[in-house]
Amino acid sequence: MKPQALRGRPDWRALTVGIGLIAIAAIIERDAGQQTITATYGMGPAAMPHVVSVMLAVLGIGHLITAFLGGLPVPDEGDPIAVGWIALGLASLLGCIAFGGGFILATTLLFALTARAFGRRALFADLAIGLALGVAIHLLFAKILTLSLPAGPIERLF
Amino acid sequence: MDALASLAHGFAVALEPTKLMFAAIGVLLGTAVGVLPGIGPALTVALLLPVTFKLDPTGSLIMFAGIYYGGMYGGSTTAILINAPGESASVATAIEGNKMAKAGRGGPALATAAIGSFVAGTIATAGLAFLAPWLVQIAVNFGPWDYFGLMVLAFVTVSATFGDSPLRGLTSLTMGLALGLIGIDKLTGQSRLTFGVPELLDGVEVTTLAVGLFAVGEALFVASRFKHDPEEVVPIRGSLWMTKEDWKRSWGPWLRGTLYGFPIGALPAGGAEIPTFLSYVTERKLSKHPEEFGQGAIEGVAGPEAANNASAAGTLVPLLTLGLPTSATAAIMLAGFQQYGLNPGPLLFAENPGLVWGLVASLFIANAMLLVLNLPLIGLWVRLLAIPQPWLYAGILVFAAMGTVAAKPSVVEIGMLFVFGFIGLLMRRWDYPIAPMVVGLILGPMAEAQLRRSLQLSLGDPMVFLENPGSATLLGIAALCLIAPFVMRNLNRFKASED
Amino acid sequence: MKLFGRVFAGLAFAGLALMAGPALAQQDIKIMAPAAPGGGWDSTARSIQQTLMQTGLAKSVQVTNVTGAGGTVGLAQFITGAKGDPNQLIVNGFVMVGAILTNKSPVTLDQVTPIARLTGEALVIVVPASSPHKTIQDLSAAVKADVAKAVWAGGSAGGTDHILAALFTKAAGAEAAKVNYVAFSGGGEALAAMLGGRVTAGISGYGEFESQIKTGKLRALAVSSPKRIEGVDVPTLKESGIDVEMVNWRAVMAPPGLTAEQRKSVTDMIEKMTKSKEWAEVLKARGWDDYFMAGDTFDAYLKSEQSRVGDILRSVGLVKS
């Protein structure tokens, strides 16, 4: 990781973070402005948000300045495809929970897609392992310890 | 001394073979459930409480103590092995512990956590037996202003973990503070930054943020680098067991961690997080190997783990002497007592000394049992890291998601885990420190609540912080910690220019 | 994986322990506790579970916990998820009535089918032992004299304790909006503030303060229930001339869209349960008072509680109308 060498051109990372921080500060400020209830004694519920949003705004400006003075450290090369596979796995987990796919199916997909991200090609073998893992977890925690895990079609078989 | 005799009697009861078996089962069950990230000791105890219903009071309490300690140890195990702290008090452990595990030193990390917990638990239990009545007086007199002072001190010292860029460190911390604003304001019941999403009313769960940033973020980061520069995980390098050097570096942190954990845990709003952070920064300052911090320094595991366990014993001080349940776990313990029609409090010692000391003795035995059962298992735990990386990280993600799903099965919660995972990836790639964000989320809301309570009690007069000796002292120390580094630097420069 | 082998070994025991129990009845009941394990609603739900199974009124009973926002997250899920299903129940109570208003919840208790009020707990107003206020009238006078200086300690903002503090302040002749109420998270912190003498008075469920009162560290001035608590020599607010009455009740309700028959059979099951000796034992062990009320009486009671809580929360300023 070395500092941005290019002079004259602002660092897009620092710019993005700076603008993002200022945006978040604005959201917090807006929300605090909508508080209808104040405390009768001492500080109200909007005081702390004001403090945080000012801090964020200052840090945002700090990032903008940094963007023109060297920028953030440049990260090593990444592999967006691998990240994409895991993102797909997490998204299918989310989808399973949202649309009643159940915990076991979610686990199976997350497991297999993550393994794919790390270069595995044996999709069916990984699906099988994920399924076995999901079933084992479901039986142990949901059945025996009555922990409520989201149920889907596979769970209803048990 | 009465207490001693009662304690001895308690031990006699708890040491019967059947009782020992209950302790062992409790420890195993507790560890099994406690390893799930997101399910801390309190939830573990609550989930397993029905199991103890079937036993007689003594047996049940002993099993209960076992579950409690098992749950706590389970939380640190995942923090060390897979960087997924099971509860907010294990966040500090994860910082160095996981680095050690990845460098093949998972064995010593787990060992120092287990032995440190035992040492701290033993000392703190002794403290409970002899200092409780005295300590509780101080605890009760600790006002909101004093808590605020303590939290400011924690903030200031934790900023030492920011790394080399104050801008990025402060950004991380402030984002944590911003996340802490989300939810219902404790003092007025107003919702802040919830955008009409009811799931956000209870705020951002610390474990969701920690598991997202630490475990999910890590998995994403390692995957993103896998093709170019695959990470090398060595399950065991050198000794599986702690070396002489490890022992030498651990005992100091254990004792100091206990000194932080026990008294702060005894405070009604002290909690376990502040002592673990204070212990972490202290060890970082005192260590002879400061360069190892951030790379896996054993002191950074030994201290916070001891502090965590000592604070757990500390919460029993107000519970047993006053009947004050000051933590989620203590509240559940109270439920455990109440199922036998017992009400902890000032009367309990007088009415039912056998049971109280029986409990203290069982905590002690559960602690020892934990050590006996877990030390041999460390080899097994560590070998989990030998699983081929694709499966290892897939398993970690499944496990992390499962903990979150089990604790709060909602789309919003999983969505947050997802988002925090990606923020964790970006922060790793762009070199932002991660821990300050979690610290901000933990300490921010606490500090705000205590500050506002203080001002409400003083009817808005800020002088209350300086008029009370406790808060004045704590704020003074915080100011010193803040100014001292600058003064020292200038002093050095001054000296240098004189030469 | 070795890990799971170990988990399984431990859990096999738990399984054996949990599966024991009589299997007589026909129904599989699901109870939602809209709170985390360990709290009041959760223990109510689990006590119902235990009693229904012991008495054989139900074949199996499952308790699910949905946490969040004073139970309103669970309520919303229950209303959409359990609609028309007579085998599902939700535990809730007085706290939820307030939480629905303060959290501006999109769902309300009008959308579920009330079954029965089960238990209730009296709140107690206490002062530290060193306090100059010897009776509830002293405290009332102090509140009237300077409402800002009379600092109250209790649980979460907008909760039962806060509502009682506001009702009391109003009854004392001061402005309810000016009540200086400090919300503490958890009874422990509030109790410590009282024992440390930092607040004027405190409010909580009687059980929480019981041992402090018995040892004389706190002085109980009045209880909020309509009748004195059995065996406790503390006057009620009413008999002390303060016209305030409040009970922190817990109830069980069914989903929307039940037929009159279904509602009756669920009510019968719950009523049978509350008449069992197993339930009496549970109440005794937990220290709960029986406040059983069902049918139309409970419907009317629920309505009046909703409007009363709404009024007081508006007058305190916690809810803008």
From TrEMBL, chain B:
In terms of PANTHER family, this protein maps to:
TRICARBOXYLIC TRANSPORT PROTEIN
Organism per entry: Prosthecodimorpha hirschii
- Which residue ranges traverse the bilayer? 20-49, 61-82, 109-132, 144-161, 167-184, 316-335, 355-373, 380-403, 409-427, 434-451, 471-488
Mention any Pfam family matching this sequence: TctA
Question: What residue ranges carry the coiled-coil annotation?
Answer: none
Instruction: Specify the DUF112 domain's residue ranges.
Output: 20-438
What UniProt keywords are attached to this protein's entry? Answer: Membrane, Transmembrane, Transmembrane helix
Q: What is the protein's given name?
A: Tripartite tricarboxylate transporter TctA
Does Transmembrane appear among the keywords?
Answer: yes
Does the keyword field hold Transmembrane helix? Answer: yes
TrEMBL record, chain C:
Keywords (A to Z) from UniProt? Signal
Q: Supply the CDD domains for this chain.
A: PBP2_Bug_TTT (cd07012)
* Any one Pfam family match given in the protein's UniProt record, by short name: TctC
**Gene3D superfamilies associated with the record:** Bordetella uptake gene, domain 1, Periplasmic binding protein-like II
Signal sequence residues: 1-25
Key word Secreted present: no
InterPro entries membership:
BUG (IPR005064), Bug_dom1 (IPR042100)
Statement: the UniProt record of this protein carries the keyword Signal:
yes
PANTHER family, per this entry? TRICARBOXYLATE-BINDING PROTEIN, UPF0065 PROTEIN YFLP
Q: Tell me which family the UniProt entry assigns to this protein.
A: Belongs to the UPF0065 (bug) family.
**Protein name (record):** C4-dicarboxylate ABC transporter substrate-binding protein
Q: Which organism is it from?
A: Prosthecodimorpha hirschii
